[in-house]
Design a protein that fits this description.
- Two copies of one chain form a homodimer.
- With about 200 residues, chain A is α+β, with helices and mostly antiparallel strands.
- Chain A has one domain: 2-Layer Sandwich (SSo0622-like fold), CATH 3.30.1960.10.
- Chain A is built from five helices and nine strands; from the N terminus they run ααβββαββαββββα.
- In chain A, the strands form two sheets. A five-stranded antiparallel beta sheet of chain A has the order 3-2-4-8-9, with helices on one face. Chain A has a four-stranded antiparallel beta sheet with strand order 1-5-7-6, sandwiched between helices.
- The radius of gyration of chain A is 19 Å and the shape is elongated.
- In chain A, about 40% of the residues are buried.
- The interface between A and B is medium-sized, with 32 and 32 residues.
Chain lengths: ~200, ~200
């Protein structure tokens, strides 16, 4: 039978192999790599997934049906009106939404004390939607910031909004993603200082 | 020194007094009262806050500045176009947003095992943003569903969207809140069955 420490170390080993593969195939946002490396250098934590925050044009059959969702556009940075308009040109089924999603991290923790410490660092640095998301086979903390937009733009295969409004939504999305990525820098600084 | 059980019982007692006061002054959504009563009748849990889900017209100085936000309209039910338009008529400063916020509950738990059980019931009944939000002086689980809309409608004291688009956004908001409240019924049913 494994001790809890051995189990944690095995989970961590597997997670690091997966991360290395993902980095090799450029599936990890470069913006978060220093933070992931810092977390993975500690003895009590390892990362299992991450996103630096993004702006998305998403087509889906109906509200909440994310399984059949299709990304028409996806950017981990600010966008321009042409990019979003171009993504909307390929909308052809169901609904279409413009989303801003905040930075998010899932982090395996050695024990509940370590999980609590990490959650508190997140919450005090603007990642206010942080919490312990699982304590079954592995203790996982989610760190999530709060900036989001969820705007329906079309329904029943038809773009309902006028194209003239897109620059306004793009401007708001860019403000939102910039703000979120500033928070990411702040989180990284505090994690550098507080975790060993 | 208090035992953990005594501490939990004291927290619960205080929370129930607050809930009773809130109910007397009609500050609790009637839709969630049966669920709150069920949770509070168990030995391992008590509710500290709740919302049945709502549609909101919110004025705020800038993105993310919720401290200075003003509710121009707030409904725990489906809305009509006239109600939303009327709320927008009183918009006079900063930005204005139309939001749909999902049902949310904060629940004190006797121990980490009880917290884990409740979190699992939430996640398996569509409350997928559930997690343990605090384990310091009190273990608190947040149960939260996923339906949301966050639509900017105006900025710099000016309504940017055309009024013609409001019926579309209202229709989407109503679909979203109806879906969320259906999930609430499902959650209630499972909590009735599984918690004692």
């Amino acid at each position: 039978m494994q001790t809890e420490d051995e189990e944690f170390n095995n989970h961590k080993k597997n997670a690091l192999v997966k991360l290395e593969d993902a980095m090799k195939s450029h599936k990890v946002d470069t913006l978060v790599i220093p933070l992931l490396e810092k977390i993975n250098s500690t003895s009590d934590y390892f990362t299992t997934s991450s996103c630096a925050g993004r702006i998305v044009v998403l087509q889906l059959p109906e509200i909440g049906n994310k399984k059949k969702a299709v990304f028409l556009g996806r950017w981990h940075r600010t966008v321009n009106v042409e990019e979003v308009s171009e993504a909307l040109d390929s909308y052809n089924e169901g609904q279409v939404w413009l989303l801003t999603q905040p930075p998010i991290f899932h982090i395996g923790c050695k024990n509940i004390v370590a999980a609590n410490e990490l959650m508190k660092i997140g919450i005090s640095n603007g990642f206010k939607h942080s919490g312990i998301r699982s304590i079954s086979s592995q203790i996982t903390v989610e760190l999530q910031s709060t900036e989001r937009m969820d705007i329906p733009l079309g329904s029943k295969n038809t773009l309902v909004i006028e194209k003239e409004i897109i620059p306004f939504f793009v401007d708001m999305a860019n403000t939102s993603i910039t703000r979120a990525q500033d928070k990411l820098t702040r989180l990284q600084k505090h994690i550098e200082e507080k975790l060993n």
